[in-house]
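In practice, a research group might receive sequence data for several interacting partners and want a quick structural hypothesis before committing to experiments. The following worked case mirrors that situation: the sequences arrive first, and a predicted assembly follows.
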Amino acid sequence: MITLDRPLDMHVHVRQDEMLRRVVPHTAQQFVGAVCMPNTLPPVDNLERYEAYVEEVKAAAAPLSFDPYVPLFFRDDFTREELSAWAPKLFGIKLYPAGVTTNSDSGVGEIEKIEPILQIMQDLDLPLLVHGETHGYSPDREREFVAVYDRFATTFPKLRITMEHITTREAAEFLGKHENVFATITLHHMLWTMDDMLGGPFNPFLFCKPILKSPDDRAALQDLVKQGHDKLMFGSDSAPHTEVAKRTEGAAGCYSAPVLLPCLAQFFEDQGILDQLQAYVSDNARRIYRVDPPQRSVNLVEKEWTVPPRYGSIVPVNAGATLRWWVEGANEAELD
Amino acid sequence: MITLDRPLDMHVHVRQDEMLRRVVPHTAQQFVGAVCMPNTLPPVDNLERYEAYVEEVKAAAAPLSFDPYVPLFFRDDFTREELSAWAPKLFGIKLYPAGVTTNSDSGVGEIEKIEPILQIMQDLDLPLLVHGETHGYSPDREREFVAVYDRFATTFPKLRITMEHITTREAAEFLGKHENVFATITLHHMLWTMDDMLGGPFNPFLFCKPILKSPDDRAALQDLVKQGHDKLMFGSDSAPHTEVAKRTEGAAGCYSAPVLLPCLAQFFEDQGILDQLQAYVSDNARRIYRVDPPQRSVNLVEKEWTVPPRYGSIVPVNAGATLRWWVEGANEAELD
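A structural hypothesis for the assembly, expressed as tokens:
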């Protein structure tokens, strides 16, 4: 058995309404808290929506104790007055360059315009979470964005900046450059490459943004994980879409929530680094973000199970695969 | 009006049976002959199937005069006796490294093993057509294969070798290296990049093998086309799959047949090189392959039309786009 103390998923999309109620239990069974992204419709970009969204997620997780950490959706018209008033309650702010990912059309267009807000955030010690991609050629979008991270980190040396879901060697190597820069890595970018999505027949359930990268990029991410880098946090970027939306609308996002800890345990065990899993899925995040999640442990037990083809209308990653770790207390009825 | 004398599509998939009868008219309306690929089930890999397949395609094109040029599907157990006996009737032989594209599982596994057959082909002056991709990382498969082309061209300097559907700068730059190496370029690799397929929502109708490449690769292909390279031929690689197969099975292939000449004319006109279109879609191929297609011209007239969302069960590329050239005699009923 593996016991994880207060595991956290530092990047997840739980959507809204019926979809939210469907997916939050998967996350809450495996984690005691999660960074729930604010790219809802409309986005969570003020205190009122923030408080309502936190409550909606908590209600969906009940009776499990669960802390949703919801970064506010970055607006370039935030004022110092409102951010100062809200800051004691906020977790951070999430920056989406406009148009690069699901529901991010209202994100920020010109990176330069936002620096006054970053100054306020630094003054208020509000962390900045970033979807770091330019509008360039897909495989290069994150590599090109590293220069933006560099500029932010240099200009605002006390601002805590998290490079969300890093996918490239360039971002991995950049992680060590500035004290105030951190990163999350997803399960799918750690395990798979673009070839898993499109090297054979196209697999829409591995289509995500940022797109899966090369074997060399994946190796760089795995090296970071294996070295137990203390600025690295697990963040799944689990992002549910219905099978219909995946197949007919080309929706981007991997639904990994039901398989996260079993797959992570398997990878860490295969690499002989199971003793590092606790830091990766909890300790680093608690230290970096100074959060105090609910006192709850999650146990993984050795038990083979087969990932079901779908959870309701949602097809998970690794559907049909046999995994060897099972989350104690997970819903066995879903396996039928 | 643009009049094209004996236009040819030097690479097309017309499949079999009902699908064949559905798609051949699109090709026959625009071209007087086409290289019809032999990756049927079972593949066209002997003289009997070859003759039957030619007849099947001709029948589907009737009453239009149309020459199907069907390269035999490469088998590594071809004997000198059978190839010698068949050679006077054959167009060439198509080599698929095993497993890289639709129905190519029976293709050839180890490149080295096939050189005795290439020797026979050179002796018999039988052209070699190649799907040139390794089994490596998708975006690099063609780049890696250029070394194989180089080896073939050096070892068999009198063997005519066509690099089918080239997609990369490396292949484009390699075209000039050997006298006996030629190339085809598709419409979709000339017009689009990987971003058109997956830079926004995923577009399954631009998912093909080889996959769409980078803006730099596309620029290299366009440069070849614009310079009027005389070893370059148009080959659409139009490859029909039903919408269901595209969406639920991840089938690879772009169905471009209904829009080919209109899109080519538009591109050549926009580039100010309309006078080069004739060589690109006919003269080069007739010289390289020494074929004598039916004496028939195809006229393009200026008339705006909107590409329909689907032709029967098949979604074409450019669906919904407005094009300004119309193929005289094309089926207007399909626009409803």
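Before designing any experiment, note the following. The mean pLDDT of chain B is 95. Chain B touches chain A through 23 residues (CB under 8 Å).
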